[in-house]
Amino acid sequence: MPDRPALPTGRIATLDGVRGMAVMGILLMNIAGFALPEGAYYNPAAYGSSGPLDYALWAVMFLLVDGKMRALFSMLFGASLLLVAERAETAGGSAPGVHYRRMLTLALFGAAHLYLIWWGDILLHYALVGCLAFAFRGQTGPALLRGAILCFVIEALIAAMLYLSLRQIEVAGTTPGAAASAVKGWLDTRAELGLSTPDRLAAEIALYRGPWSGIVAALTGEKALLPLYLLYAGGAETLGLMLLGMAALRSGFLTGQWPRRAYWRAAAWGYGIGLAGTGLLLLLCLRSRYDSLTVFGASMAGGLPFRPLVAIGHAALGVLWLTAGRSGLRDRVIAAGRVAFSNYLGTSLAMTALFYGWGFGLFGRLDRTALYLVVVGAWAVMLLWSKPWLDHFRYGPLEWLWRTLARGRPQPLRRRTSPPNAA
């Protein structure tokens, strides 16, 4: 068998389908970032939890979604990066030229998303890390896997240093007789990690219920350096996940080429170790009564070894379902994955219109349980529009715009004939 087996040509249904599952699943975590004060993204005690069901739903998200869907999304980005580069080479084009134009255009989309719409953007981060990941495209599957593990080790060291520095701030600010500046430093840090003061909460709620101009001022002001922080605090992990996705594509894992029993085995190992470790972290959070630094540490640094494993479990079950036979739901999930870029950015526009002051102003008004009903509604929209659109057009609207800008000329959008399976 060659060290670098040829990748499949044409659309890969399993890759599109798993991407569809990822873009739908990531909203389960992002919904708190759209609708609640920032600390509630990690900590259920920060805001939005008024009863046992809210806390129970947070616990389920912590086990299955928090960081895991982002990990799966990152893996799929790495796989797609490799696929686009190799197909450009096969067509006789310049893989570096195609890749870096795509990343530059993606960075522009990401910057607009981050500074004009929502602070939780991931696209700019992917564009920056994707420039580094491209250098590994010629590696074999085992080499990519070793590179991913090295990245995770580097990320673990960075995360440990960050966590220890936060603990030092806590000790300095809570020791009896601590200086006023140290106390204030800890209270500010504690608020940023989750448990904010009433005054800060009120100010944040007023900001996002206010006009768009005020939100943009905050995003371009206090959030201006967020991409640099993400590179420092999560860049190594993201690169490792992209390399893991490349290895998964090269091995045939993401293309449905493994025996079904191998996927069941991958799911068992991924969930068995990943969920067990995440479950211990969850117990630690519960025992601490949602201490802000404990929950933040468990979600970020503590979850690092387990996120890729659970993501692999999700991908394995996804491929098993996608290859089990044709169904209407399967086709719609695949379509949602083919227009994942449009679904991701479209979701941000829809959710901020729903929750921010320039729209319906529901920011901070719904508890977690109600927010997950909003998620189900958003899923229904994704599944309902994606397939009919692709029955008539080659790409999603934003996929077409990305492709057009990256290639410097308008791309054909409308299909000449309807696909054979068009409904």
TrEMBL record:
Pfam families found in the cross-reference section: DUF418
Entries under InterPro entries matching the protein? Bact_Transport_Assoc, DUF418
Give yes or no: UniProt keyword tRNA-binding.
Answer: no
Which superkingdom, per the lineage?
Bacteria
Chain segments annotated as transmembrane = 12-36, 56-85, 106-137, 143-164, 229-248, 268-286, 306-324, 344-363, 370-390
This one is known as DUF418 domain-containing protein
Q: Which residues form the DUF418 domain?
A: 249-408
Q: Which UniProt keywords apply?
A: Membrane, Transmembrane, Transmembrane helix
Q: Does the keyword tRNA processing apply?
A: no
